[in-house]
Write a structure and sequence with these properties.
Mean pLDDT: 91
CATH superfamily: P-loop containing nucleotide triphosphate hydrolases
Structural class: alpha/beta
Shape: globular
CATH class: Alpha Beta
Order of helices and strands: HEEEEHEEHEHHHHEHEHEEHH
Strand order of the largest sheet: 1-11-10-4-9-8-7
CATH topology: Rossmann fold
Number of strands: 11
Distance between the termini: 23 Å
Low-confidence stretches: 1-17
Number of helices: 11
Helix content: 25-40%
CATH architecture: 3-Layer(aba) Sandwich
Bound molecules: adenosine-5'-triphosphate, magnesium ion
Radius of gyration: 20 Å
């Protein structure tokens, strides 16, 4: 999507470059608890709407008043220095933080207009609608077939074995793994290579037809070839799915996403078109990060 040779530092030297920071953009010294994100965190067609999201682990606050939308069928990248709250924020969207005793999430998060923290919402069902893929591939210690069939079965999506077979095959095809495993569906998922395991986890996620797929550094345990395959897969999936991906690789964010959100110390500093974030960021903290001055 965006050439990585177009990073912000280079543009700065061109005479035509637009001024970096309009006067109303706060400097780093004014990033207080009531900080308001610059750029365009909200969209016209949100699939996910997050308002005034605050997260605490015990006494310690990890996310401060985050407001952001995720649009239908977009790939949004979440970037920022280690410990800035990217994973914590991602886990708010499928209530994975519920599983951490000391974690408290406040604020409103809606998925297609429905408050996901409402007591009537079943967290297990929600996690089928909001799938998540982690840094380290974590297939179940079951066969390849069972890894993919498990979700549709427990969510009661199919009645007939032949329908389940179809879902398994289609999910593996969409995850780009079918050709490699079609003759070994009964072999253990944990016996695959790291990159294959990650594609199996993606197949498992899409088998239950989620509305959105969250990916938390899905390539950081993979070699460059496996990484390239997953990035291609993200591009293919983005035709039908909404994807929010956390990554430490700015090149990856530039390649796969159309919008990028920059977090810093638990605050959402800036959100914008990926190309703008990487070439003409509004905020000096975003600029410092993308030009490698910290992180
Ligand atoms: N289970 C937990 N218990 C207590 N504190 C936590 C927990 N998980 C995260 N934190 C704290 O919340 C803050 C944000 O952490 P988080 O893991 O969300 O950051 P991150 O941006 O994903 O970092 P990284 O890039 O290293 O993965 C950190 O200060 C971290 O120590
Ligand atoms: Mg993380």
């Amino acid at each position: 999507m965006l050439g990585i040779n177009k990073m912000a530092g280079e543009n700065r030297t061109q005479e035509s470059a637009e001024p970096l920071a309009p006067v109303n953009v706060p400097g780093p010294e004014t990033i207080n608890e009531n900080y308001e994100t610059v750029g365009s965190p909200l969209v016209d067609n949100p699939l996910v709407k997050c308002r005034n999201v605050n997260v605490h682990y015990g006494e310690k606050q990890a996310i401060f008043n985050v407001n952001i939308d995720i649009a239908k069928n977009e790939v949004i990248a979440m970037i920022g220095p280690s410990g800035c709250g990217k994973s914590t924020f991602l886990r708010c969207i499928n209530r994975m933080n519920d599983t951490i005793d000391i974690c408290r999430v406040k604020g409103d998060i809606e998925l297609e207009g429905q408050d996901i923290y409402n007591r009537s919402v079943d967290a297990v069902e929600l996690r089928a609608r909001v799938g998540i893929v982690f840094q380290k591939p974590n297939p179940f210690p079951k066969s390849i077939y069972e890894n993919v069939a498990y979700g549709p079965r427990i969510h009661g999506l199919v009645n007939r074995k032949s329908d389940l077979d179809d879902i398994v095959e289609n999910s593996l095809k969409r995850a780009g793994l079918w050709d490699e495993v079609k003759d070994d569906l009964d072999s253990s998922g944990t016996g695959l290579s790291g990159g294959q395991q990650q594609r199996l986890c993606i197949a498992r996620t899409i088998a239950v037809s989620p509305d959105i797929i969250l990916m938390d550094e899905p390539c950081s345990a993979l070699d460059p070839i496996a990484t390239a395959r997953i990035e291609q897969l993200i591009a293919d999936l983005s035709k039908n799915y909404t994807i929010a991906i956390v990554t430490h690789s700015m090149q990856q964010a530039a390649r796969v996403s159309s919008r990028t959100a920059y977090f810093h110390l638990g605050k959402l500093i800036e959100v914008g078109e990926t190309e703008v974030i990487f070439t003409r960021p509004l905020h000096s903290l975003t600029e410092a990060y993308i030009t490698g001055r910290f992180g």
